[in-house]
Amino acid sequence: MESLTEITSRIKELMNLTEQEDNQLFKSFQSGDFSDLKSYLSNETMLLDKVKRLLNTTTLEDTYTKLTTSNKTTLLKGMAEAKEQGDTLLYNFLDSFLKSSESLS
User: Fold this and answer.
1) How far apart are CA 36 and CA 90, in angstroms?
2) Nearest alpha-carbon partner for 31 in 65, 68, 78, 63
3) d(CA 49, CA 10)
4) Which of 6, 15, 74, 96 would staple 2 via disulfide (CB 3.0–4.6 Å)?
5) Which domain holds residue 46?
6) Is 30:99 a contact under the CB 8 Å cutoff?
7) Average pLDDT over residues 88-96
8) Distance CA 33, CA 81 (A)
9) Do the beta carbons of residue 30 and residue 21 sit within 8 Å?
10) How many folded domains does the chain comprise?
11) What was the pLDDT predicted at 58?
12) How many CB atoms lie within 10 A of CB 75?
């Protein structure tokens, strides 16, 4: 039987791996590569729900379209809300799209 310390260590390791994977995806979104966006959002339902609320969309397709063409004001508003709520994942996700829109401008 594993000790609490061993279990905690494994959980932290898994969380770090997930964070690293997210960061890689966010970098690809930032560079304008949205090929994995729908798949990512399909697997991150809580994040998808937050983004749908922010963008006032109801489907994954609509959310994808708005994210890839969203204006900076909407992204900044969402980032401010995420920061206020301490939601690092949402903040970093939206930040990658803000940087993408800046690099594509």
Assistant:
1) 17
2) 68
3) 28
4) 6
5) 4-104
6) yes
7) 91
8) 25
9) no
10) 1
11) 95
12) 22
